[in-house]
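User: Can you help me understand a structure? I only have the sequence.
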Amino acid sequence: MRRNNWRDFLALKILIVFFFVICVISGLLSLFPGNHAERNAQMVTAERHMSDSKRIHHVFFKKPELTPNANQEPKVAHKLFKGIHTIDFTFGVLPDTQYYSRSHPDIFKRMNHWFVSNRDSLKLNYIFHLGDIVNNYDQPYQWKAADKAMNILDEAKVPYGIITGNHDVGFQKNYRSFDRYFGEERYMWNPWYGGSYDNNKGHFDLINANGQNYIMLGMGWGIGGQEIAWMNHVLNVYRNRIAILFVHDYLGSYGKRTAQGQMLFEKVVLPNRNVRMVMNGHSYGAARRVDTVDDNRDGKPDRKVMQILSDYQSVKGGQGYIRIMGFDLSHDKVYVRTFSPQVNRTHAFKKNKDNFTFSLDLDQAPKKGKKGKVHQ
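Assistant: Let's start by predicting it. Here is the structure, written out as tokens:
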């Protein structure tokens, strides 16, 4: 009798342990939806040492999830777009925040609180930070101020991308503080976070807005051949997505591309048919230009690329100016609005420089391109 009781007890323990293991495995698998092949694509697929760098460069691909507000039918209803009833969703822009981190942290926080408070009426799907997070890379208090301000978006689960500017790394390109506060670890478990280059020096996010698939590709200060190669690789893998690039230095104050901007245009924008927009900060002012690209070289333009500079840092410390871009899918239009939650103004410079509309091909990116596996 005792032997039978012991056997029953042992069998019960084995059953409990087995059930616990199954639950743990199921929980882990739920973090990576899809079949085995998809999970492999979601995890790290490339990890290598560059010959001239001691840092490890990561690329990992994740199956995107719908971002907040994605695929909702109601149009944007916000006073910044008064009288316009055809906007499907918006993306936000945080230009250089260096002086806020240094001297006006409350303005920095107010800007992000405004984004969160107006998120639903704007149908806000993503925010671009254009670099120069802090003014002095070697001042910890500025990084702490920036950390607190950006944490407002983290806690609200608002998708955003952030890159470095020259003030964030200095002449020595010291990424130590950026790595600590805004490295890959901070973002890697967000469902929209697609992958990282050099601990978030570069990264991409996968955003679905009203059924459209976007890839937001950012690269921080100090762009060379290796960074270009990584950007082109990612854009090719996700060539079926509409691509928006954001870097710190691209257009100058008068709308002419800088030396780095011209390099990026020739080596990244032109070869990748899905690139439709490039954004940057760095140069004081607001400027824009559009280029038509003949991808198949038949003498007829195949796409337009809009390039936009946004930098309000020197308007009395910046005064909290942000930008909101409203996308009208049915008319292939983008409405750009500039606003300051600090002073409640809708322009810092001339109205037509800060608030404008442009036409853009918002159809899903063409599927033509280099051979290789395509990720959605």
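Now, to help you interpret it: The mean pLDDT is 85. Residues 76 and 122 are 5 Å apart (CA to CA). Let me know which part you'd like to focus on.
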